[in-house]
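Why this split exists: single-chain examples teach little about how molecules sit against one another. For that reason, every record in the complexes split bundles all components of an assembly together and asks for one structure covering all of them. Below is a record exactly as it appears in the raw files.
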Amino acid sequence: MSILVLADHHDGQLAGATAHVVAAAQQIADADGGDIDLLVAGENVGAIAEQAAKLDGVSRVRVADNGVYAHQLAEPLADLLAALADDYSHILASASTTGKNVLPRLAALKDVSPLSDILSVESADTFKRPIYAGNAIATVQSAETLKVLSVRATAFDAVGESNSAPIDTVDTVVDNRLSSFVGEELAQSERPELGGARVVISGGRGMGSGDNFKLLDGIADKLGAAIGASRAAVDAGFVPNDMQVGQTGKIVAPELYIAVGISGAIQHLAGMKDSKVIVAINKDEEAPIFQVADYGLVGDLFQILPELEQKL
Amino acid sequence: MKVLVAVKRVIDYNVKIRVKADNSDVDLTNVKMAMNPFCEIAVEEAVRLKEKGVASEVVVVTIGPKAAQEQLRTALALGADRALHIETDERVEALTVAKLLKRVVDDEQPGLTILGKQAIDSDNNQTGQMLAALTGLAQGTFASKVDVKDGTVDVTREIDGGLQTVSLKLPAIVTTDLRLNEPRYAKLPDIMKAKKKPLDVKTPAELGVELVAKLTQLKVETPAERQGGIKVASVDELIDKLKNDAKVIS
Ligand SMILES: Cc1cc2nc3c(=O)[nH]c(=O)nc-3n(C[C@H](O)[C@H](O)[C@H](O)COP(=O)(O)OP(=O)(O)OC[C@H]3O[C@@H](n4cnc5c(N)ncnc54)[C@H](O)[C@@H]3O)c2cc1C
Ligand SMILES: Nc1ncnc2c1ncn2[C@@H]1O[C@H](COP(=O)(O)O)[C@@H](O)[C@H]1O
């Protein structure tokens, strides 16, 4: 049987995470056989389907282009997936806010137990996933005939983009009388996406104010970094919610993670401890962040950051 | 309008867990337990809806062992009116939790059902979405604002790119994110009063739900521990290490 991957996209662009989810699907296909179909659902998503067709390993891109799928609301998307599900052994999506919103709803419609945030494919029915904020890793075997899985994108290397898979149309149009879109406030940023950035620099409560986050800008510019934050910095209103890194925010695993004025609570570590190199800047030499940092610099961030920017 | 809130007893968020030596599970013996933080936010939201006159009654429900009644009493002390304990000592999969909660929704007919977005033990982030599917209701997940209107509710959701607002037909299911509200603490007189509030106990069998397990936990491991590194004395030394040892900047 085949595998279906739900493509993640926003602002008319295929999200980077999708290439990582296809890599997870590829590992299942290697173990179990089967083709990989990629579903692009939304409104005016033709250009996204073209991007998706380039992903290596994809046999076919299926496009459901209709106003009812605009903004990827959970109710119509889950109904669409449920209508397609019987042709598939596995349905995957990234563990993004869209994937986490839609997949469990789909699973319940099909009366199966889903698995969220898988980190590895052990076999076609066995997967590893983090529990307790990543302080334990569970190996879980699913006896369901349809496996519904959300995938932690940072745990799989992206597939390449040298394919040109055929694109066909899905005619299924569902009805949505339950929910409607009212509006959105999206953060505008020229910087790379947090989940896919090579370098991430994050600020915590120690930054003191939203204005002081500007101290990170120049360094981020020089390093091509995305900017993240701790929950405390978001709760205090310094920066918007989409910048939160951690157990209940975004998961990042860049080459270089720089934590500034962040103490290192387990919920924060859950989102960044798989980074390759971690730097911590904190004035408290006992801060737990130093236990995971490769390079720790004890001192006042208000002195260190300008100096770092200037010397980079 | 009645509001139903599902709460889960989990390990206290401050506790660092240990994996059992035989790798069968995490070790919860003598570990401090508490209400899941996202469920505290759910209870708080329901109580505020009651205080605003939007909700007429707040009912809390939990599925778990006898000891989970502590968390129901906490919810009652925080302002819930009555509680339902669905008692079982088994590990219950999220799909089964959702099926049990569906029975409760069928019985109670709440206008709004509020759950946490995620339980901090399983980190599943599934139950609310599954309950919404099983009841055929709309879902407003990861809510940072809930605004009940006439026949609908506007839910502002924390999504990867920022915030999204959706309008849902009532009755509906909402799951809470961190910034929906700041939960209050229970006051001693309220804790005393909570002991007298009604708490019903039922079994899954009484609700007609069989506890099936489709997921088998084969093994639980401790993740590879990161080795703490070194302290550098200056910005110059840091840059030197990043360039020449770690080779992550050029
Ligand atoms: C259910 C739940 C989910 C959570 N999810 C997340 C999550 O996803 N992500 C997350 O980050 N947190 C999360 N948390 C919160 C977490 O427990 C911590 O409260 C939070 O991470 C602390 O943020 P912080 O390190 O910025 O603040 P603090 O712990 O207050 O640390 C601030 C640090 O800044 C340092 N500092 C202050 N001034 C300076 C200065 N001038 N120069 C240098 N250093 C300075 C201090 O020494 C201190 O170490 C969650 C909590 C719960 C209960
Ligand atoms: N055993 C349970 N009893 C009551 N509510 C639960 C239970 N398990 C999960 N929930 C609810 O579902 C939410 C999300 O849990 P989960 O999907 O397991 O991450 C929790 O915050 C609770 O509101």
